[in-house]
Design a protein that fits this description.
four-stranded parallel β-sheet; Rossmann fold; 369 residues; 3 domains; alpha+beta; 28% helix; D-amino Acid Aminotransferase, Chain A, domain 1; globular; nine-stranded antiparallel β-sheet; Dna Ligase, domain 1
Length: 369
Amino acid sequence: MTPRIGILGGGQLGLMLAESLHHLGADVIVLEKDPDAPCARRLAGVIKKPYDDAKALEDLFTKCDAVTFDSENVPSAPLEPWAAKLKPSLDVLRTSQHRALEKKFLAEHGFRTVKHRAVAAGEDIRAAAIELGFPCIVKTVLGGYDGKGQAVLLKAEDATGVGPAVLEEKLELQTEVSCIVARGSGSEQAFDVFENLHHDHILDFTLLPARIDARLAAQAKETALAIARALNVEGLLTVEFFVANGQLYVNELAPRTHNSGHVTREACSTSQFDALARVLCGLPPPVPAMNPGAWVMGQLLGDIWLAQGRKGGALSLSALRDFPEIVEVYTYGKLEARSKRKMGHFVVRADDMGVALERARAFRAALMR
């Protein structure tokens, strides 16, 4: 019988997952209210309703064998009647979408995080910040991505307002890395570790393999697998780490495909999307071997479209003729280009990581001329 898989969310992550599901012969139904979202524009079978629409959820879950989500920011309460079909589980979603619960889970299971304080609703943020020490970072407990929902506090006068919030120690970072784990059908696999370079709090480049020593890379894999086991994840889990003082600190959990994992579409024998698709269809995840070479994924933000005088949609790629190292350019088909909006990505392969990163920077600069 043909499996039918549901996706809550119709952004680019949902679109690339749907492509992998179609390659397995699965039918896909997406719930997405935005008629201009990538899935809504490119796929059939899209229910154009909000995530908390009870009738739409009933329609989605009753028709599907399993349902996943392309963002941990989907509301969890409306999913309670349908929890049995959700992968990863509702418990995983609730833990990962709430920063205070996430930090509590990590602490209770002995995973190293930065020093932090959870500030309950109505409690004074300043008192907690003074106790933790400055500088520190204040974050909302729900929502927020790409630096949204957080601010750096340098002194007591910066700390205003009340909770709920999470305060975190501000470390001097060496770099940031991530590891993606796939689990299902009694099997588990971990992708090689990615190094992530950010600009203005937005992922700028992902490097594979990460430029960290083998000991830390092995520890990141082991920790990601251990967290996935402790959460009893069935599906995908991305674990983001800070690297500071020669140690790994768990930053955040994302129980879904991840921006940093786009590089796997070319750099690995199987992509993060293929791995999740297999689990959702009741198959064990494949072994994700890295292909030879140095790989860089570069983000394509709306600023490039604006620099070309375009409002959205297609992008001029005439610069490709000068960059044979580019092995993939994937645009998401979004109609409105805005500064810092994720509109696509590209992947570079070279024999040397320094060369790969240099060519990635040069290609993106060429697109903006």
